Amino acid sequence: MGELQRPIAVMGVSGAGKTTIGVRLAAALGVEYAEGDDFHPAANVAKMAAGTPLDDADRAPWLDAIADWLTAHRGRGGVVTCSALKRRYRDRLRAAAPDLFLVYLDVPRAELERRLTTRTGHFMRVQMLQSQLDALESPTPDEPGITVDGTQDIDAVVEKIRAALNPPPRP
Predict the structure, then answer these.
(1) SS3 per residue for 139-167
(2) What tens digit of pLDDT does each residue of 2-29 get?
(3) pTM for the full model?
(4) H-helix segments, 35-84
(5) N or C: which end of the chain has fewer CB within 10 A?
(6) Integer Cα distance of 7 and 131 in angstroms
C-alpha cells in the first residue's frame, strides 16, 4: 500500500495530458485528485485567457495554494496537477511535501499544438505554448519521479507510474 501514501504531482506544459493522467492515476490509486488550474487566482485565469503568459510573481500564490494542498494530504497521499515548469517551483512544492513524486509528461511540440488547437473550454491558448516551453526546466535525476512519454496509451502511462511508485523488491 506504499503507493497510497506518497503525494504525486503530474507536471508538464499545457496540453501534455496532466488532467487526463492525474484523474486516472488518482482513481487507480484510490486517492484524492486536485486540478491544479483550480488553484489559480481569478486574476491569473483572466491574464491567461487574454493571452498573456504568467510570470513568477503571478505563479507564487498559485504554487503556495498547491503546496498547502500537498501539506494537508501528507501521510494519506493524493494526486495534483501542476505545470511545475521550473526547478524552483518544484522545490517549493517539495518543501511542503518532501516525499513528493513527480510525473513529468513529455510530449513533442507538434502534438502539444494539435491538442491545444482541438481543446475546447480551457483558458490556455496555443499562442502561449512557446512561453511555457521557454520556461520549462525538465526534471533532473536528483528529483524523485519519472518521465513518461505523454503520447502513449493512458492506461500504459498509469501502469508505468504505478510501477515506478512500487518498484519490485530487490533480491
Answers:
(1) CCCCCCEEEEECCCCHHHHHHHHHHHHCC
(2) 444 789 999 998 888 999 999 999 999 9
(3) 0.87
(4) 42-49, 56-72
(5) C
(6) 28
